[in-house]
Amino acid sequence: MVPAKYESPYAGVDRGEDVYRVMDLDLDGVCADYTEAMRQWLVHAGRMAADMHPDMRHYEMTSATGWPFQSVEEYKQAHREAEANHLYATMPVIQGAPEALRRLADEHVYIRVVTHRLFVSGQHQIVVSDTAKWLDDNHIPYMSLCFTGLKDTMHATIHIDDSPANILALRQAGEHVVVFDQPYNRQLDGPRLSAWDETSVPKLMAWMDQWCDDSGK
């Protein structure tokens, strides 16, 4: 059942005490450390040296030095095998994310998880189930869980993402995006979160209030 404070379908509408704000939240590179999870899996599988830490200045693993991939197909095959071994249920959480997100939920922010994890076909049941398990195991609050690569088709008060391509597409669609800082996205303009810490919630709340005011809501 949807809580009463979330019954309104409109983002940013003042409903007396409650202000309904929608935050579209990416997972990999924002809440979950996909890069480290893949590195650990490759080490465990004997495909990568334990002391190897790849270059993080490129978003695409096939473009970054240090990864054992010579082609996109090699990467997808390794990713598919890691998925089957429950990569998405066991990956490390980015420090501070659960605590900050629980505080945002307490501030009446409607958290919608939006992730592009179904880009390799054949194992969608595992991916969806393991994603939900990981969210529950790490006590991350959310009201909706969406799997899509077309993030620029989704309207929200605020989006948090790390992917340069997603950030640019969302901004071109007129959406407000906060960049979650990673080495591969530092060429992009802010606003930016460098980490989930005690300053994250006040910053996000201020940006949401500003953007709601800018839109005339």
UniProtKB/TrEMBL annotation:
GO-annotated biological processes: deoxyribonucleotide catabolic process
Family matches, as SUPFAM superfamilies: HAD-like (SSF56784)
InterPro entries documented for this protein: 5'(3')-deoxyribonucleotidase, HAD-like_sf, HAD_sf
Gene3D superfamilies: HAD superfamily/HAD-like
GO MF, one annotated term: 5'-nucleotidase activity
Active site positions, chain numbering: 26 (nucleophile), 28 (proton donor)
Annotated Pfam families: NT5C
Family to which this protein belongs: Belongs to the 5'(3')-deoxyribonucleotidase family.
Name the record gives this protein: 5' nucleotidase
Organism in which the protein naturally occurs: Bifidobacterium boum
Lineage, uppermost ranks: Bacteria, Bacillati, Actinomycetota, Actinomycetes, Bifidobacteriales
